[in-house]
Amino acid sequence: MLVLALARASQPLAAYEAFLLAGADCPRYRPSAFSVNALLAALVRADRVDLADRAFRAALRRRVSPDLFTFNIVISGFCKTGQLRKAGDVAKNISAWGVAPSVATYNTLIDGYCKRGQVGKMYHVDALLKEMIQAGISPDVVTFNVLINGYWLCREGKVEDSIKLVEEMEELGLACILSTMNSVLNGFCKKGMMVEAEGWVDGIAQRGMKPNVITYNTLVDGYRRLGKMKEAAAAKDAMAGKGISPNVKTYNCLITGFTTSRDWRSVSGLLDEMKEKGVKADVVTYNVLIGALCCKGEVRKAVKLLDEMVEVGLEPKHVAYNTIINGFCEKGDAQGAHEIRLRMEKRKKRANVVTYNVFLKYFCKMGKMDEANVVLNEMLEKGLVPNRITYEIINSGMIEKGYVPDISGYAADVSKNLTSS
């Protein structure tokens, strides 16, 4: 009872310790499957799948008879952490305990493959679907939604397949949910099929569902990807006309598009609109604006935005600092770039590979090879791993100009990567 009480009280680690102690004090102690299920579920929720696995195996050794919930909890934990092989092994052993897998079992496994980048191995999903049908288990609304939302359909550009699944759902009398419809819409937009995308939005309404902010943000982003900013802005206005308030993601998408097309008047108008509607800028907003200002050569204004971020309680990320450092380097202002690096490090953000690449490129461009060599050695001494861009800079900026970097202790690794790049 103690194990059950602690698990229900959201104290999974204490429940786990109680479970172990009970078994150590009384080898014949056999908890109920109900208590074990509560413990396993609490551990999985706390992201302690490792302990859930141990508790599961310990329960089996104590001859606890697992039920379907026991197996489903363990399978969901393994899928949650991407341990799909282990999840599959547990599923294969269900029948050995006289338990039949349910549609929830298969849904969990299918969802695991879809979410964990297993899209290139569709045979896993196909095999699970065939196994379901052979076992007499009919796919339910969750199965279809998982498949449609999965990477191997819309996110892989297979919009036609996802539409067929929606139609199949409806033929079976299963209701499609809005998030699934939005996933199909995302597929259209990523393929640049905006006429079809607009038609799909109409179809959402015809099915009795109300498009939401995600629906319209997907449309806005679709037009933005194609550089059709007039249509993107119109989608935002259509959203407002439907009584749906644009959010910061809507504005970030539009601001990104208009900065790319250098339509500064529209950017300014959107910023004013955000203030008027009480939509607060986030880190992404500032990153986009800082990038735009640096591209215009207005680096000092970008620094002011960096200050503003801190003032409003937002923590600048590496991308903001590195963008400004690059902006100063592009203007030939190494001192300004160095000052931003110091500010970054004062906020406990160490220079990363991108930071060093910016300085390395600058010194190579200026012909200051000794300074470039110092930067390279400092990066290596700090244990940072050079990336492809680093090697391209070394090759084109130093070696091709007749300067061999003095990197004793790192030469073997660097030269090996240079020859393979």
From TrEMBL:
PPR repeats lie at residues 32-66, 67-101, 102-139, 140-176, 177-211, 212-246, 247-281, 282-316, 317-351, 352-386. Keywords: Repeat, Transit peptide. Transmembrane segments: none annotated. Gene3D superfamilies: Tetratricopeptide repeat domain. The keyword Transit peptide applies. PROSITE patterns: PPR. It holds the Pfam family PPR_2. InterPro entries: PPR-containing_protein (IPR050667), PPR_rpt (IPR002885), TPR-like_helical_dom_sf (IPR011990). The keyword Transit peptide applies. Belongs to the PPR family. P subfamily. This is Pentatricopeptide repeat-containing protein. It comes from Zea mays (Maize).
